[in-house]
Amino acid sequence: MTALSARKAAPSDQVILAEQSVLGGLLLDSTCFNRVSDIITADDFCLREHCLIFNAISALSKESKPADVITVSEWLERRSELESAGDLAYIGSLANNIPGTANIVAYSEIVHKHAAKRKRLADIEKARAALLAGNDEAAERILRVAPVTKTVEKPVTSEWPAPLDGAAFHGIAGDIVLAIEPHTEADPAAILLQFLVAAGSLIGRGPHVRVEGDEHHGNLFVLNIGDTSKGRKGTSWGRVQSVFEQVLDSWASERVLSGLSSGEGLIWQVRDAIYVREDGKETLSDPGVSDKRLLVLESEFASTLRVLERDGNTLSALVRQAWDKGNLRTLTKNSAAVATGAHISLNGHITADELRRYLTRTEAGNGFANRFLFCCVKRSKCLPDGGGDVDLAPYARRLALMANKVRTFGRVTFDDVARATWHQVYPDLSEGRPGLLGAVTSRAEAQTLRLALIYALLDSSDQIRAEHLRAALAVWEYCEASARFVFGTAVGDPVADDLLRAIRSSGANGMTRTGMRDLFKRNRSGAEIGAALELLGRLGHISARQVSDTGGRPAEVWVGR
Hints:
This protein has 561 residues and is an alpha/beta fold. It has 3 domains: 3-145, DNAb Helicase, Chain A (Orthogonal Bundle); 170-409, Rossmann fold; 494-560, Arc Repressor Mutant, subunit A. The protein has helices at residues 3-9, 11-28, 33-36, 48-62, 69-78, 87-96, 104-132, 136-145, 171-180, 188-203, 233-244, 251-254, 263-268, 301-308, 315-324, 352-358, 361-365, 393-406, 416-429, 435-440, 444-458, 466-487, 494-505, 513-519, 526-538, and strands at residues 209-211, 214-216, 221-225, 256-257, 274-278, 281-286, 293-298, 343-350, 372-376, 413-414, 463-464, 542-547, 555-560. The strands form 5 sheets. The chain has a 5-stranded parallel β-sheet, sandwiched between helices. The two termini are 44 Å apart.
């Protein structure tokens, strides 16, 4: 059984492995305790022995004492808890089986998130029992007063995202990834995300979730972020494409297109019929496109981002319209084409460096970027002889049956349990994040709804159930972690971002205003530098202090946090 199979078969294994990784990392280097203590507590561990071990590490760390296998074991033994904690051999195995501490923050976040999920599910079960007993008031009170997961200000790190939670591999999406995964070097996350964007496009615009006055359909925009060639981005799409090519539908051969270079070109691929007026009568000039489904595949998405920088280019605005409503038009005088009811999805490939370089402050701030799901991808394994063939025909038949059924659906709703779960997670999803990371992830709730809708439709269900929402949340958490990996502490202001990098590079010595002016070769005004410093200070990235040993008047020095 592969590691991915294990996550699918027993999702709790992933939680236990994350807990062991956190504890093992702390036993290897107890100085990491400060990196995780704001994220997790002993109560977040699902196994009692792990809770006891973390308590011991915490107590020793707070006393500034070393916390290794021997000291932790002795601490537990003095309190007659060593046997309950799994004995010396188990504690030793935690340290011996962990390669290092590089991903300890990411593992801590996994532990905390699953603890929060267990608490939410317990509250929902209590509420359900109250409802079944006819006590609506008690059920409402439980859901109302149940503490929402504490919002942890996630440390901004450059750590690669932790593997996708097993809940993401639900239903036919998970079955297909599991079938393909042993035979490819492609990242399971890339296979899954590209399968979901393709499935949403195949289904079309009928099924939707309504939130107030807005309808959310199954059209996703996904950006796969990985090194050129080594990320296996194209390989992962090839595997997904081979499934959909076997579905008896013209979509795979006719509605997956590349070449996103202008807004007018995008409209043309999903245009309505065009009529011209001649001799007082309207005459059909162009029949338009009857199939309004379109999956735009851009293997070099950096080129698309460069196009957005051109003066007068309408592509950014129309891509946003495509995600929102599916009604596309421009104000260009000579453009007669418009599109209504279009169902446009987008699957792009790019490197992290290209994304940072070409995603301008404008596109990050105007809502273009936050309509995308960011997915970090890399080679999952080394297969010198290539992967084996996989019989995908049974999955293609299941997809065809599903698509034919769910296209007739209209509004899709939550069942009672999923709605209660949604009420629990919504506050955190809708909580704003600072900086560029906050700008590119600010549609968390809408993205999660669309993902949950697709998971429900793949089960041929006209209701979103708890397992669909859990799968969607797992995917969103990975996408958010991917965005954090790419954008880190960037705030989206070029001056502020350059300053932050320079200030942090200066270490404890900090940086003076003179150093900042020299950094920009005196091409930035004092007002621009001052505004950038104010922004970085407000976000908590830097702080100022006075230095008096300069031989003159005290100087103000900024240091990174």
